[in-house]
Task: inverse folding
């Protein structure tokens, strides 16, 4: 028990000695002024927003609560511990009695007193008052003083008020300043870093704001390396009234000297000495400009590296105007340790920022890539798809709507092969090929769309696998090639028809030569006098058969595109009515009703007889299609579409199967007669297979088109489109008919490779009183013309050695008096391409003998008077 009074005595005695010592030191400081120094002005009270000097910073960082009370009884400065303890507002000053009740009871006392405030504290505050420098107040008035409260809220001392705070509490004053300062700075720096997000650049700025005033610098900067190895100031703390250098760029050739140094003390001379001589003239104005502009005397550069990669540097700047006592030019162990921590924290922040930036770039690139490929995916014309191992669609592009008529969500879950493929053998072939090769290329097959219609699809597909090479399903692209297939079919059909047409033209030409001999000799026989009636009957039958054969060859030549009759302007409605009138009786007796829906349409240039034949062929086919139908109806419709006149002929007959539609215009293709299936109605009808093929050729020769739409058991529509008159040349006027009279005797040369035709023409012309010579070679004919004078030459255009056209061209080289008039003969249409003035007329084989006589008379008649 005796130790308690002794302890109290020693404690009170210690406080008293401390008070006497502080007063003595205070008086000594007032009375002693260094030689040549000005008397210092009274210091102003510290403010919470003022950047504290090193000793004030210690108070700010102290775990004790420091409160300064001014002469107006206000708290005008407090450290962080006091703000937390008393709950001080952010803005000072604030009245002291509102925060610390009854502090006046001890403020006027010259000795320690105990203050107990049940309202605010449960502990005891011990207060010692110290008179301020120049304080004229008596002991009864309040003065400027400090309250120092420890962790248990006991006031341990009052200290004299001063900006530099020369009189510190004994427990602080007895310790070296720098170790405490650096230790507190390090602790505070780590505390702030742990509270802030490491990837936030504000953490770097907070470190600079702590180190700058704490160490006693004019400014401290963080420079970040750029791709071109220059550095730019990204963050900065600078003392008041200092110019900011944020955004300042240091060129790469100035940065290089301290990249390999741990710490580099920079002054313009030291940097110049470290630079290569070649860049010094360029660097000198830059360095001196920076140091002068920002009032810098010395810079300590602390490079920051992340995984051996230079990322930036801390720049500790000592100003020219700083007090000498606060300047330093070396990095000792304490400061080095502090800067190492700062460098570590900033480096860690930069590392996290790099990771975050890389992640953000990766996410942006991924998002951009996803957007790009999503746009591509959604704008695909072809259909991209994926299926699972069972063939069910798991992913499909929106283009499936245009190709198949299904929306993507309707297609998802469907079985690709079973639901879309039409032919089973194609499904099997697809699976075999992809199973063998792992992929298929340009696999063409028929599929069905939502409406059930068939479409041609080309697909490229392959297996797709996981990371373990396990097959997950099939992916591929499908392209609608229906239009291409149709064009290919049209091309094949056109080539086939062109080949058949060429063949038909050749056959017709040869047959015309034969038929001409038959027809001609039959007519010669009929000219004989004294023949019995039976013989005359035979000749008439031969002539009739030859004329029928002439019509057949004419159709073949029309199909081959070799002939086109006289073209004139006409109205399709008139032609259609004339054609309908021809078979009106047959339609009526078959119980077929005809409905007309004519519109006003422009005229068209056409060979009316040939176009009438087209309509007739279609109407006959419609009549046959209506056999055994309960209701029989044909609808005729005309319209004007763009530059074309359209004629549609529709029946409600049996229709045409899809497999026949592609061949319907092929020559000799028919489903009638013995070609009909079973007891079909068409089995009772005869067909040659030339009607529609000839019609197709006629329409093409008129620069038109013929289209077909048909559904089985519903009916068929043929649409013939012909150019309106405004898109074709005007028809030439027909020459006036002239009466032909017998001529005097002529000398005629016959040039033809057919011996029978030469004999026929020679016999006929000689009977007409003319002199004839004949040959089968153009060269011989030219030789004969050079030796003899001929009035007329009958020339066949199709000859093996020298064609008739070549003969005509060579004839033009002969003297005028040796050039006879020409009548040319051909089994094909030669109305164009014969531009010689020597050609008087053209005969189309097989011709009648009377046509020969008319052509000869026309060649020698004088021109008509106008």
Result:
């Amino acid at each position: 028990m005796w130790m308690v009074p002794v302890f109290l005595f020693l404690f009170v005695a210690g406080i008293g000695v401390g008070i006497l010592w502080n007063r003595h030191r205070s008086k000594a400081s007032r009375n002693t002024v260094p030689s040549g120094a000005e008397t210092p002005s009274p210091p102003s009270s510290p403010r919470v927003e003022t950047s504290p000097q090193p000793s004030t910073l210690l108070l700010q960082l102290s775990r004790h609560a420091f409160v300064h009370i001014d002469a107006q009884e206000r708290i005008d400065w407090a450290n962080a511990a006091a703000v937390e303890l008393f709950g001080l507002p952010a803005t000072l000053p604030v009245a002291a009695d509102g925060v610390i009740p009854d502090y006046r009871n001890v403020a006027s006392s010259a000795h320690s007193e105990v203050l107990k405030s049940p309202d605010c504290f449960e502990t005891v505050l011990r207060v010692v008052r110290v008179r301020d420098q120049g304080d004229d107040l008596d002991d009864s008035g309040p003065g400027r003083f400090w309250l120092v409260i420890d962790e248990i809220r006991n006031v341990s001392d009052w200290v004299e008020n001063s900006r530099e705070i020369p009189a510190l509490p004994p427990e602080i004053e007895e310790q070296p300043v720098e170790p405490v300062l650096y230790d507190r700075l390090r602790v505070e720096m780590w505390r702030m870093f742990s509270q802030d997000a490491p990837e936030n650049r504000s953490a770097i700025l907070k470190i600079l704001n702590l180190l700058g005033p704490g160490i006693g610098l004019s400014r401290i900067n963080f420079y970040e390396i750029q791709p071109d190895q220059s550095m730019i100031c990204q963050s900065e703390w600078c003392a008041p009234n200092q110019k900011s250098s944020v955004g300042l760029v240091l060129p790469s050739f100035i940065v290089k000297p301290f990249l390999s140094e741990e710490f580099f003390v920079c002054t313009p001379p030291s940097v110049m000495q470290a630079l290569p001589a070649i860049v010094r003239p360029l660097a000198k104005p830059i360095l001196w400009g920076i140091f002068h502009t920002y009032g810098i005397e010395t810079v300590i550069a602390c490079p920051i590296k992340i995984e051996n990669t230079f990322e930036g540097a801390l720049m500790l700047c000592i100003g020219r105007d700083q007090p000498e006592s606060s300047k330093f030019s070396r990095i000792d162990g304490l400061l080095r340790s502090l800067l190492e921590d700062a460098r570590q924290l900033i480096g860690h922040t930069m590392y996290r920022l790099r990771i975050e930036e890389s992640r953000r770039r990766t996410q942006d690139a991924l998002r951009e890539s996803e957007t790009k490929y999503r746009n591509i995916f959604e704008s695909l014309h072809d259909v991209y798809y994926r299926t699972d191992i069972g063939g069910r669609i798991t992913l499909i592009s929106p283009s499936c709507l245009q190709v198949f008529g299904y929306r993507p969500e309707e297609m998802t879950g469907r079985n690709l092969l079973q639901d879309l493929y039409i032919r089973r053998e194609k499904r099997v072939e697809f699976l075999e090929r992809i199973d063998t090769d792992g992929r298929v290329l340009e696999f063409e097959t028929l599929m069905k769309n939502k409406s059930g219609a068939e479409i041609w699809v080309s697909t490229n597909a392959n297996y797709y696998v996981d990371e373990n090479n396990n097959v997950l399903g099939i992916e591929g692209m499908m392209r609608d090639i229906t239009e291409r297939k149709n064009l290919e079919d049209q091309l094949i059909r056109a080539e086939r028809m062109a080949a058949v047409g060429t063949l038909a033209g050749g056959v017709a030409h040869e047959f015309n030569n034969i038929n001409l001999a038959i027809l001609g000799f039959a007519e010669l026989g009929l000219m004989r006098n004294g023949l019995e009636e039976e013989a005359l009957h035979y000749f008439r039958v031969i002539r009739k058969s030859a004329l029928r054969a002439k019509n057949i060859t004419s159709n073949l030549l029309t199909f081959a595109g070799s002939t086109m009759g006289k073209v004139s302007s006409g109205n399709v409605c008139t032609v259609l009515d004339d054609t309908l009138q021809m078979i009106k009786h047959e339609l009526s007796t078959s119980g077929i009703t005809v409905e007309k829906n004519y519109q006003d349409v422009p005229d068209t240039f056409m060979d009316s007889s040939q176009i009438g034949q087209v309509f007739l062929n279609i109407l006959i086919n419609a009549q046959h299609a209506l056999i055994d139908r309960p209701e029989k109806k044909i609808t005729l419709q005309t319209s004007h579409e763009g530059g074309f006149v359209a004629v549609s002929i529709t029946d409600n007959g049996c229709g045409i199967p899809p497999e026949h539609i592609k061949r319907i215009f092929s020559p000799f293709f028919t489903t009638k007669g013995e070609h009909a299936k079973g007891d079909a109605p068409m089995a009772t009808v005869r067909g040659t297979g030339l009607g529609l093929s000839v019609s197709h050729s006629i329409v093409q020769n008129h620069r038109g088109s013929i289209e077909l739409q048909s559904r089985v058991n519903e009916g068929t529509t043929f649409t013939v489109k012909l150019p309106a008159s405004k898109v074709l040349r005007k028809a030439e006027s027909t020459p006036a008919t002239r009466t032909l009279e017998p001529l005097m005797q002529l000398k005629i040369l016959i040039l033809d490779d057919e011996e029978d035709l030469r004999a026929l023409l020679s016999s006929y012309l000689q009977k007409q009183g003319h002199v004839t010579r004949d040959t089968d070679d153009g060269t011989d004919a030219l030789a004969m013309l050079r030796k003899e004078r001929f009035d007329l030459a009958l020339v066949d255009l199709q000859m093996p050695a020298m064609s008739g056209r070549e003969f005509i061209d060579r004839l033009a080289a002969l003297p005028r008096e040796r050039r006879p008039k020409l009548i040319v003969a051909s089994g094909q249409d030669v109305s164009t391409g014969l531009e010689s003035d020597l050609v008087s007329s053209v005969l189309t084989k097989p011709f009648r003998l009377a046509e020969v006589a008319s052509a000869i008379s026309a060649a020698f008649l004088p021109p008509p008077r106008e």
About this structure: The chain has a mean pLDDT of 74. The chain has six domains: 44-174, 181-355, 383-480, 486-559, 568-727, 747-860. The two ends are 165 Å apart (CA to CA). The CA atoms of residues 565 and 607 lie 6 Å apart.
